[in-house]
Amino acid sequence: MAKTDITPEVEAQVQEAPKAAPAAKTIDSKIPEGPLAEKWTNYKSHQKLVNPANKRRLDIIVVGTGLAGGSAAASLGEMGFNVLNFCIQDSPRRAHSIAAQGGINAAKNYQNDGDSVYRLFYDTIKGGDYRAREANVHRLAEVSNSIIDQCVAQGVPFAREYGGLLDNRSFGGAQVSRTFYAKGQTGQQLLLGAYSALSRQVKKGTVKLFPRHEMLDLVVIDGRARGIIARNLVTGKIERYAAHAVVIATGGYGNTFFLSTNAMGSNGSAALQCYKKGAYFANPAFAQIHPTCIPVHGEFQSKLTLMSESLRNDGRIWVPKKKEDAEAIRAGKLKPTDIAENDRDYYLERRYPAFGNLVPRDVASRAAKERCDAGFGVGTTGLAVYLDFSSAIDRLGEDVVRARYGNLFQMYEKIVDDNPYKTPMMIYPAIHYTMGGIWVDYELSTSIPGLFAIGEANFSDHGANRLGASALMQGLADGYFVLPYTIQNYLSDQITVPRFSTDLPEFVQAEKDVNARIAKLMAVKGNRSVDSIHKELGLIMWNFVGMGRTKEGLETALEKIKEVKKEFWSNVRIPGEADTLNVELEKALRLADFIEIGRLMALDALNRNESCGGHFREEYQTEEGEALRQDDKYMYVSCWEYQGEDKEPVMYKEELKYEAIKVQQRNYKQ
Amino acid sequence: MWLLNSSIGKKVVMSVTGLFLILFLTFHMSMNLVAIFSAEGYNMICEFLGANWYALVGTAVIAGGAALHILYAFWLTYINRRARGNNRYAVVSKPKTVEWASQNMLVLGIIIVLGLCMHMWDFWAKMQLNELTGLFPDVNPHDGYALIVEKFSSPIATVCYLIWFVAIWFHLTHGFWSALHTLGWNNKTWLARWKCIANIFTTVICLGFAVVAIYFGFIA
Amino acid sequence: MEKTINITLKIWRQRGPKEKGAFKEYALNDISTDSSFLEMLDILNEQLINKGEEPVVFDHDCREGICGMCSLYINGHPHGPDEDVTTCQLHMRRFNDGDVITIEPWRSAGFPVIRDLMVDRGAFDKIIQAGGYVSVNTGGVPDANAIPIPKADADEAMDSASCIGCGACVAACKNGSAMLFVSAKVSQLALLPQGRVEAASRAKAMLAKMDELGFGNCTNTGACEAECPKSVSISNIARLNREYIKAKLKD
Question: What is the count of structural domains for chain A?
């Protein structure tokens, strides 16, 4: 990929991987030159573009229709590219971005509380525990304002004040109110905005939609991504699609844990297939555990439900101060309302006076786990803490609380059968988001030329921990305002490349491989359902690769995952046929990949001998139990490269350099 | 033509003709009430609305409105049944807020049409039509009062008419606000108001009709 | 504390859109009343797989009541007997020991069955594609606060926009009409100044598409509103009618 005026800053040092090190490889993140605040402007001024006549001749495959994929497909279509857009659901509008509740951040400073692009950038880097790339995050903060403008223009009904201007609320990890919201359904409204833009392009004919299609392989020709193999989920047919570039926007791999806040269909397969074709997988260990989810209540449970972080604006988190009270509550002898104010431990307010209940998610999650592990947990299992609105109701009145959180309270009541206006909610952390993902450079290009990754699918701008209301921001930033530019820099030298035939041997081979994988799965004819094995994997992940990780635990996990893999490939049962609609086959294909991802997560967690953000190694903590980073050794992005079936992957490092920000221990106390 | 092609257009025709027929019923009811107070007054109206050119034009317009309303009802029902698909639900449970009438408008309509036939035979055929064609030479087309007295001397006829009015009541309680809704004259606040107004208005009309039937059937 | 119940399920099984379907009965024991309806179906499917039978196919995804993927016509109600929830949020505590639960797919000509309880709702996408958007390109838009919008309008637009496109309105409607779905989108955009510009052409285009796809005519029974998991109001339908009639009278 030739670049004209930009000299990439080759700052990434190459170090040998922990095991079986092959030849050293340069990780080039292609960060443009110039001062941090001018990099993106510089880049845009000098990048190569594709003229309108040529755009028509270029095909782009976008896999995924969430905030990132939907907005990218729509924007690329508007520009005149010929876009093929795939999703596994029956409609693009179902992508899991829709479930985001709380809001979207932007540095508008409409509230006049001192916000700025720099402050949003700074909060995001700090929230990510200094494991994100400065230039990317700054760009994210820069374009954040355009996102809000764009969405309003599309007719997204953001909450407004009586004067008719936009309202904001506060979120964790920030001391300003910069979160825009649409009731408790912000993700839904933003996604419907992107979906409407996408629908407009479908009508214009620039985007062709392929719902109920699942990408099962990436086709690489002469080192460049040139297409995908997808399974039509209705007919079971394996189909080939060619394009000049492929964009992966398939979200995260949180469902490796079986129980997570992700949708049932959310999976990491597209990302893993890219990894198997040579794309680096970055920071797989960085998974976010969200502190406010409805606790697990039974064996049969299929997923965990998130209660928006916005609840922490007005809700106060506590457990009993006295162990005997906690025990009595667990035994059903006491009710939370029986505990006197003085006997309640508002542990977040106690430990972090400056941020209180609005500390970042990783901090809040660990604090909850700490209290529960110490024996102060509530609920029948002891794995829950209270989120109490009584003081907010006293202060604001029930009507105001209802107006702010009514739909969330209703959802809680429907699931738990408890009235949160009367008795505190019970919450517990759960897997929610994965900061890790496909490695991308500044241009959002993966290590395979022509393959791009956006949104949660890439290793993203969130470092080791994502702040609330930042996922929506990043997905839309990538899709509307970053990728449509950077992809042209790649496509500009593709204008003379004619459309590809899907009869090329690479396509034939890829399809053959997919068919072989399916045939192998169907041939197992074992005794266990996909879900039962997935639950087993999830339990291992939660116990050993979850909130508190240790060297021994991770080694155990690696062993156990190996056993699960063996069990899966020798004992899974998939009823029905492969050449028709077959939900169990879909799940099996995804689980096969989750097992690989789980292993990669454990490997990465084992490699990273430090605690940072969502990655907490119990060996590395301060005396107060806070995460203890090892900046001298681990200030890098770990990039894992696939070496082949049953071979250990190799890790490369992209060193992180902080120029604008002084790296320090995160402090949410003062 | 959108009144023929589009779903809302077809519904607009239903609404406009429906509202027009309600208006007609309102006049008809007021006219009937006169019979209770004065036989001469009533017969004066009968003569006025006899085979005069303006009454005939009016009759034609009303007949046209009714015909359109009925035609469109069958047409819409046909489309709606087709839209429902080939398989019916095995279990159906009506939500509490759904009016019974709203789901049975066609059936109610058919009952009303049957009632209408009866009514036309009983009165219109012997009045306006008779005046034009002389079909019933023994009947004085302008003596509507006598016809009423004679008709409602039979309790069966009275009961038939009362049943007819009940069907009209059901049909109108839904039809009235539904027509306004279809024409777009509704919103969150007026939804409940129109329903209330529809119930009151319909009740007044049907009571007006019923009073005459009961008066001549059981009292006079 | 956990309560369990035994139930009988009558589930519609159908191989494909052209094939004939029929009800099949399944007995299911010891179902926790804390489990959700779909978790109950997961348990059934687990048992079917263990018996070597093909599991019941149904659509579902987020299981938080927002993606609109889950459907199911349960005991005569789209999304089951509970109010204001989708099937994924319906819990077994709404049922009693010994209940017979009849589960059917959405039945409407506009939503052909794909298999068992899974239907094709692609028609909704087509209706949105006909005009359910504001024609703005990425970039080049004014500042978000450039046009103040009265809070009441913004709130009402939000209420209309809360539609999740699940299709319960069509399933509940005895006429198989998609008016609530169409009107919710038309209303949302008609209420906001950004969408007002194209309000007339949008109403015409979306309605024409709805008619073309074989949905029925609205007779204002209100069943859609009663069964809508997001309580989208039929006042939206009045607004759509208004917009449409205005647009047609202007032509």
Answer: 2
**A74:C46 CB<8 A:** no
| Residues C126, C239 share a domain | yes
Q: Nearest to residue A607, comparing CAs of A644, A543, A650?
A: A650
> What single letter denotes the amino acid at residue A416?
V
In the A/C pair of chains, how many CB contacts fall below 8 A?
A: 222
What would the two tokens of residue B169 be? 């009541």
pLDDT tens digit string along A517-545?
999 999 999 999 999 999 999 999 999 99
Task: Single out the residue of C176, C157, C156 nearest to residue C167, CA to CA.
Answer: C176
Is A361 part of a structural domain of the chain? Answer: yes
Nearest CB neighbour to B6, from listed C104, C207, C222: C207
To the nearest 10 degrees (0 to 180), the angle between helices B53-83 and B7-37 is 140
Containing domain of residue B55, as a range? 2-219
Contact A632, A610 (CB under 8 A): no
* CATH code assigned at C165: 1.10.1060.10
Q: How many domains does chain C have?
A: 2
Distance, in Å, from the CA atom of A116 to the CA atom of A136, rounded to the nearest integer, reads 16
Asked if C121 is an interface residue toward chain B (Cβ–Cβ < 8 A), one would say no
Q: Which domain holds residue A364?
A: 290-429
At B170, give phi and psi (nearest 5°): -60, -45
* First vs last C-alpha separation in chain A: 47
Q: Which of B84, B94, B177 lies nearest to residue C176, judging by beta carbons?
A: B84
Question: Residue A9 — pLDDT band, cuts 50, 70, 90?
Answer: very low
Q: Give the residue from B3, B4, B7, B97 with the most C CB atoms within 10 Å of its CB, the best one to mutate.
A: B7
Interface chains of chain B (3 or more CB pairs under 8 Å): C
List all chains that touch chain A, counting a touch as 3 or more CB pairs closer than 8 Å.
C
Q: What is the pLDDT of residues C14-39, one digit of tens each?
A: 999 999 999 999 999 999 999 999 99
CATH of the domain at B42: 1.20.1300
What would the pLDDT profile of A130-167 be if each residue is shown by its tens digit?
999 999 999 999 999 999 999 999 999 999 999 999 99
**In this complex, is the C-beta atom of C176 within 8 Å of any C-beta atom belonging to chain B?**
yes
Query: What confidence score (pLDDT) does residue A476 get?
Result: 98
Nearest-Cα distance to chain C for B116, in Å, is 23
Closest by Cβ to B83, choosing from C109, C223, C239: C109
- Please calculate the CA angle A42-A43-A48 and round it to the nearest 5 degrees: 125
SS3 A139: helix
Whether C108 and C131 share a structural domain? no
Total number of domains constituting chain B? 1
Residue A22 has pLDDT above 60, yes or no: no
Distance from CA of C248 to the nearest CA of A (A): 23
pLDDT (0 to 100) of residue A1: 39
Residue A381 at interface with chain C, using a CB cutoff of 8 Å: no
Q: Which residues of B touch C218 (CB under 8 A)?
A: 7, 11, 182
**Which of C104, C223, C240 shows the shortest C-beta gap to B98?**
C223
Q: Residue A14: its pLDDT value, please?
A: 38
CATH number at residue C34: 3.10.20.30
- Exposure string of A227-244, with b = 16+ CB inside 10 Å and e = fewer, is bbbbbebbebebebbbbb
Q: Do residues C182 and C218 make contact, with C-beta atoms less than 8 angstroms apart?
A: no
The pTM for the full model equals 0.95
CB A599 within 8 A of CB A117: no
Q: What is the ipTM of this complex?
A: 0.97
How would residue B2 be classed by pLDDT, with cut points 50, 70 and 90? very high
- What is the residue range of C168's domain? 122-250
- Which positions in chain B have a beta carbon within 8 angstroms of at least one beta carbon in chain C? 2, 5-12, 76, 79-80, 82-99, 102-103, 105, 174, 177-178, 181-188, 191
